[in-house]
Design a protein that fits this description.
Length: 320
């Protein structure tokens, strides 16, 4: 059996994002007595930390799927990640990365206090970490770097080399190199290679159902759809409702396509593209604070629900 906890359901910036007055941010902030607006009629919304899941096949050792800048807070709020016995302890046995985005790797720096664990990522992403001396705070003699190949299921090991009880097949999905690694001189794709953005197919060794984790995906190609057909569970990129919503809301001049995120709406959107594939459970994660599905009374939320989607939330637990 696999146990999954959504540690952070937000995209980069979270909800509220420190410098955003998007409606979801204002309403999340209004839970805070310091900034509560006494005349606001908007119901408060829960906050969302940045993109990460925790996964365990044995209930004892936990693997982080991406390590967000909010990891310290996420650990505090998640009992199964607390130290158990002894002066120094953590159930965190490994981290599996889907890309090198800030919201997925910055949390590695939180794990720097001499704890043994394994970091799994593509050769490309391991290279990015190796090229940045700050990640040297994860001493190599304690923190093993392990290569995730594309297209081959591998048995995940913890930092002591013991099998985790599940396998992961990494596969390339349409995407973009991390924003902070974009090479403007490299042409239209900014130097992106296949290993920059991956999806994960995860299966427990006990033969139970597995799931897919794809927090970033620029388009649902036929290949992506074919992989997900008939899945028991898919946790998928829920960044945007409309491709141009950041531009319309005044956030920044970038479309979803430019950022490497397919939107939910429209003929190419994830609601249509992942409809009719017989996926038993579909959950959006990596949800940006501009996305109207965050507003419970919105028409967009109702449309997503009618298409069979759940809106992931921090602390959401799923047992498969
Ligand atoms: C993204 O999901 O597009 C990235 O997290 C953006 C970023 O790195 O700021
Ligand atoms: Mn992100």
């Amino acid at each position: 059996m696999l146990r999954i906890v959504v540690l952070g359901s937000g995209a980069g910036g979270g909800v509220p994002q420190w410098n955003s007055n998007a409606e979801a941010c204002r309403r999340a902030r209004s839970r805070d007595p310091v900034s509560r607006d006494p005349v606001s009629r908007d119901p408060a919304l829960p906050g969302r930390t940045q993109s990460s899941l925790a996964l365990s096949a044995d209930g004892g050792r936990w693997f982080l799927l991406n390590a967000s800048p909010d990891l310290r807070q996420q650990i505090i709020e998640t009992q199964c990640l607390h130290p158990r016995t002894g002066f120094r302890d953590s159930p965190i046995a490994g981290v599996i990365l889907t890309n090198a985005d800030v919201d997925h790797v910055a949390g590695l720096l939180t794990l720097r206090e001499g704890h043994r664990f394994a970091v799994w990522a593509t050769t490309r992403v391991l290279g990015v970490l190796a090229a940045n001396p700050i990640f040297g705070v994860l001493a190599p003699e304690l923190v093993t770097r392990c290569r995730l190949p594309l297209g081959d299921a591998v048995a995940i090991l913890d930092g002591a080399g013991q099998p985790a009880g599940f396998q992961v097949e990494a596969f390339a999905v349409p995407g973009k190199v991390a924003l902070w690694l974009e090479d403007a001189a490299a042409g239209a794709n900014f130097g992106t290679v296949a290993e920059d953005t991956i999806g994960l197919a995860i299966r427990p060794d006990d033969g139970g159902p597995g799931f897919f984790y794809i927090p970033g995906c620029a388009s649902v190609t036929g290949e992506v759809a074919d992989r997900l057909r008939g899945a028991a569970l898919v946790l998928f990129d829920g960044t945007l409702w409309d491709d141009d919503e950041l531009i319309r809301q005044g956030g920044m001049a970038k479309t979803g396509g430019r950022m490497g995120h397919v939107c939910m709406s429209g003929p190419q959107g994830s609601l249509m593209a992942l409809g009719g594939l017989g996926i038993a459970r579909k959950v959006f994660v990596h949800i940006n604070n501009t996305n109207p599905v965050l507003l419970p009374e919105s028409a967009e939320r109702a449309t997503a629900a009618a298409a069979g989607w759940e809106i992931g939330f921090d602390g959401m637990e799923i047992a498969l």
